[in-house]
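User: Hey, quick favor. My workstation is busy. Could you predict this chain's structure for me?
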Amino acid sequence: MTTPFLPSCIQLFHYYKGLADKAMAKLSHEQFYAKPGPDDNSIAIILQHMAGNMVSRWTDFLTTDGEKPDRQRDAEFTEQQLDKDQLLAFWESGWACLFNALEALEESQLKQIVYIRNEAHTVEGAILRQLGHLPYHVGQIVYLAKWQLTSSWESLTIPKGASEHYNAEKFRQKRS
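Assistant: No problem, here it is.
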């Protein structure tokens, strides 16, 4: 038995959001703004961009272009000097837009056409586009958090050197 497309995608989005949430959990306000180099993005900037993207793409998803006229994409890449709580509230609002839109969809709508920057996509294609875009930035967040937490970093997936043990545990379990 296979899991339908929408629940699988929703599960993946939750997984990637969870990775970013765990990576950011131990960071201070200052660490949200740290950058490896002057032209690099901080976690704060990445959060602003991801949230802005999700709010734009998933608000009125089926009826309006995914690039809303009031979105200020370039401003997402400038430091707004929001505090950590404000950044995380904006982050959560973006994810809420995404999850609300996805959970309202029916499998029968996957071939419907939606637009992003006036370019036609099937609903399925637009979802896959986000499944490429958001995890790309989640990886950046995880890397920047790990870079800052150094020796106190705890692996979010299978730790180095633990694959054999992890696999042994997984293969002992009944298949689902």
